[in-house]
Every structure is written in C-alpha cells, then in structure tokens.
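Journal club prep — side note

Before the paper discussion, L.F. wants everyone to see what a predicted structure for a comparable chain looks like in token form. Sequence:
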Amino acid sequence: MDSSTPPPDPSASPSVAPTPREERLETVAQQIAAVDTLIALARESIRVFDVDLSQGGWNTAPRVEVLMHFFRASTHARLDIIVHNTRWIETSCPRLTALLRPYGHAMTLYKTGTGARMAMDPLVIVDARHYLHRYHFSQPRATLAIEMPQAAQPLVTRFDEIWATGELGLTGTVLGL
C-alpha cells in the first residue's frame, strides 16, 4: 500500500483563491457533495457541528482519505467536531473514529453541553472562509458558501458558542484496566 502523500492539486493551491459563490442546496446528497468540496478547500481548520453526523457521509472511505490528506498537508491542520450524541459515531463510524489514533493531536470530538442542546442547525466551516449551513436537522435545505469570510463570521461565532459548551466526546485512547 502506497502511504505517500499525493502531489498537491494545482487548482487547489492556496495561492489560487476559489471564486466566491453561494448556492442553495435542497437535498442531503447535495450536502454530502458540498462537504467533500469544503474539505478539499481546507488548509487549516475544519469545524463541524451536527446532531450526530449520521447524515453527512462522514464514514465513507473517500471522505476519510481526504481528511487524512488534510492532516498530512499541514502541521497546523485541525478538525473539531461537536455533536449532540456520539452514539452513531461510536457504533457506525469506525473509519472516522480510527482517525483519532494517528491524528488525535489534530482532531477533537466533543459532545454539546446543556447550553447548546437546542441548536439544531448543522454547520461545516472551513478556514473561516467557506461553509455549509443546514437550516434545521429535520429539513434537507442548506446554504453552501465558498470564499465568503464575511458571511461565515456569524457562523464562526455560533460555532464558538456551541463549542464553549463542549464536553469530552470520544478520544483515540481506551481507558481502563
């Protein structure tokens, strides 16, 4: 198995900024593709808030491969995930949880605290410039924005508020005897 990092894609170079755009998404499938687009744009941080990650394609092999590339591309890469419930991740998401062992220094998985339990609008924010905002967990409508840091700022603030309530969720180590 080749463990070398693939050569960087010139079209994804940080010196070539993507064209700013915003679009409405109407299906979960569109959102899964949008998250893949966002992760491909990530250079420093990926911040995720969701109810449980069950609807976002987080356990697919291609998604995990792109996340591993993200971690290897920068020593400053961070993936911060906060969810209301970690049960689905623990039972149905072995690929993502396997990343906690080699990349636990760059990845945090929290549960929301009581102060954020009412939040129901999942977010994926990349480098505080690009985002996917699902309006409500029970509805498939969302907005994808690329290269729009000013529009992302209120969502960054919202994420920070949710993150501040966080409690330890999952780690890459097993505690016990």
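L.F.'s comment for the group: The two ends are 34 Å apart (CA to CA). Keep this in mind when we get to the figures.
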